[in-house]
Every structure is written in structure tokens, then in C-alpha cells.
Amino acid sequence: MTEHTDPEQIGVEPTGVERTAQTGTGAGYTGGANQPVTYPGAPHVPAIPPRTNTLAIVSLVTGFCCSLAAVITGHIALAQVKRTGEAGRNLAIAGLVLGYIGIGITTLILVLALTFAAAFSTLFGVLGGINGNNGSSSSIVAGQVGAAYLDDGYLLVGTGNTVVDLYIDPMCPYCGQFDAANGATLAALVDNGAITLRLHALTFLDQASAGSEYSSRASAALTCVAATNPDSTLDYLTALFGDQPIEGTTGLTDDELIALSVGADSISDCVTSGRYLAWSQQNTDNALNGPIPGSDLPSLQGTPTALVDGRQYLGAIDDPQAFADFVLGVTS
Questions:
Q1: pLDDT recorded at residue 35
Q2: Cα 122 from chain centroid?
């Protein structure tokens, strides 16, 4: 007995039987018989580019104005780009390059500035004086030391009733001429008790000593003598003018200024320490700014200037008789 099997149960299509789902006779079928079924395609969506890393942009922008910030944000941006896949790697690299260039330029400028500052400081220190002395090495002193009346700004010699104020600069050539003509007269008037001489050694011709500040150093050395060996003050003044340098030269060194002193006590420490430099310079400022104490002069107009009891001598500086007559005329 033969058993009939239903073809549909074993997946065999019976002859002449049509299936709408497979033959395509149903709705939406576009092909012919026995062709595969096609469906409408999905619309084309363009690829979205990756987002640009924000810090990469910041790094590039700050590279033009803030180098350190550009370097910091640039490194952070590169790390983020690598981790997230964001765009901006080239921007971050550009920011880093600009940042490092800026840091290099800034460092170079600082090094050059410090180098030039040190060079100029050394140069001005050398020009400030010979043997390391300049006006800033001493402080303003006060009181009375020997013949140096520091509070009043002069060196005092003699005890006479008539007061002669003499304003001089050790480098002033006219002061040298005045001393050559009248130094002996002044010394004699001091010795016989006729006058009290007040010396004002000034420093305004420092500018004419090729950077050595000779006027300041010589005036300070004269003050050292007045403070240490008062009786030798006028002798030292005569020695200064006897070995007076020409304007535009450096003048005597500190060692040579020390050697001019013939007093019992050495002025070496006083000179080399610059003890009276600032005091001498301050006296000069006071004289130039005025007024001149005990006179009608609003300020000092030049050197030599001689005042006898406040009256200015206006005669010839190289005429000892005229000057002596003026002093004696005021005295009498």
C-alpha cells in the first residue's frame, strides 16, 4: 500500500499552484515572474565630520598672545584628540609651535636684558670714580670734626672777627689762579688773627674730569685733611692747586691725593672710604640752589666766589693788592 505525502508539508511546490507572496502578483511587486523582490531604498545620509576640539582652537589663538597658555592647552588638546577622535590635531600642533617660539623669544630677551643691565651697571660703576670711590659710597655726615664744620657746610680756619667765605672747585682753573695770587695773603691774615676763613670746596666740575669725579674726590680729600690735620688745611689746598689737573682729564688718583698730605696723621682710610664724598656733593647742591647764607646772593653763579662779611669781591682774581685792599677795607 503506497502512502501519499502532502507536498506542502515537505516544502515542495505542487505543480500549477501559485503563491502570491512568492510569484510577485501581490501589491508592490515590480518584477516579472521568478524575480527577487525589491524594496524602496533608504534616503542617503551624508557623513558628519568629527567635532573640532575646543582646546585646540584655544591653543592656536593664545599662541599669538600668551605663549605659556598656548603650550599648556596645546598638550591637553592633543591628548583629548587622541582619546576622543575629535578634529583639531593640526590646530593644537600649530598652537604648540607658536607657544614654544614665544617662550624662546621671551627667554632670549630676558637673558639679553639681564646681560646688558649687568654690563651697564659695571660701566657706570667704573665711571663713578677712581679706586672704587663714588658719591654713593659715603653717607651725609654731621657735627664738627677738626676744622670741618659738617652741619654748616664749610672748613673753618682762623679766629678773626672778619669772616671770609671762599667758594672754590679743585679743578676750576680760575680758582687755581685766585689761589696763586691771593693764597699767601689769606694765610697771612689767618695767622695774624685778622680773619676767619671758611672754605667751601665744591664739586660741580665732576663732569669735566673724564668720569673720575675728580672735584668730588679732591674736595673730600681736603675735608679729610681739615678733619684729621686741621693746621695743614691751607697747605693742602695750596698743594691741590699746585698740582691741578687740566679740565677734561681724570686728575689725580686717590693714592696721589693721599700723598699730597704732609700732616702727622694719615688720611688714607678717610680718602679710600669716600667718607666725605656725599657731603661735598651736598654742599654743591646747596650752593647752586641757594640762597647763599650771610649774603644777598640768591645762589652761587660761579667759582671762585669770595665774600667778605657777606660782601662779594668783584675785582680781578689775579690782583692780590686789589683783593687785600677789599678785605682790609671791609675790616676797617
A1: 56
A2: 12
Q: What are phi and psi of 190, to 5 degrees?
A: -70, -45
Q: Which grid cell is 226?
A: 681739615
CA distance 175 to 201: 11
Q: Is 284 found in the same domain as 241?
A: yes
Structure confidence at residue 39 as a pLDDT band (50, 70, 90)? low
List CB contacts of 292: < 8 A, sequence separation 6 or more.
Answer: 298, 299, 300, 307
Same domain, 288 and 202: yes
Pairing of strands 154-157, 311-312: unpaired
Instruction: Note whether 283 and 325 are same-domain residues.
Output: yes
Give, in degrees to the nearest 5, the angle at Cα 321 between 316 and 327.
85
178-230 confidence digits (pLDDT tens): 999 999 999 999 999 999 999 999 999 999 999 999 999 999 999 999 999 99
Domain identity same for 100 and 150: no
Residue 282, Cβ density class (10 Å: 0-12 exposed, 13-18 middle, ≥19 buried)? middle
Between the alpha carbon of residue 199 and those of residues 120, 170, 305, the distances in Å are 37, 12, 11
* pLDDT of the residue at 88: 85
DSSP 254: H
Q: Answer whether residue 37 is part of any domain.
A: no
- Average pLDDT rounded to a whole number, residues 43-72: 84
Looking at the fold, whether 234 and 91 belong to one and the same domain comes out as: no
Q: Are residues 69 and 193 in the same domain?
A: no
Q: Which DSSP symbol is given to 66?
A: -
- Give me the mean pLDDT over the 247-258 stretch: 96
Q: Are residues 171 and 111 in the same domain?
A: no
pLDDT of 44 reads 60
Q: Domain count for the chain, please give it.
A: 2
Which CATH number does the domain housing residue 275 bear?
3.40.30.10
Instruction: Give the position of cell 667758594.
Output: 167
pTM over 0.90: no
Residue 22's pLDDT is 45
CA dihedral of 45, 50, 54, 55, whole degrees rounded to 10 = 180
- Return the C-alpha cell found at 209: 674730569
Q: Do residue 111 and residue 141 come from a single domain?
A: no
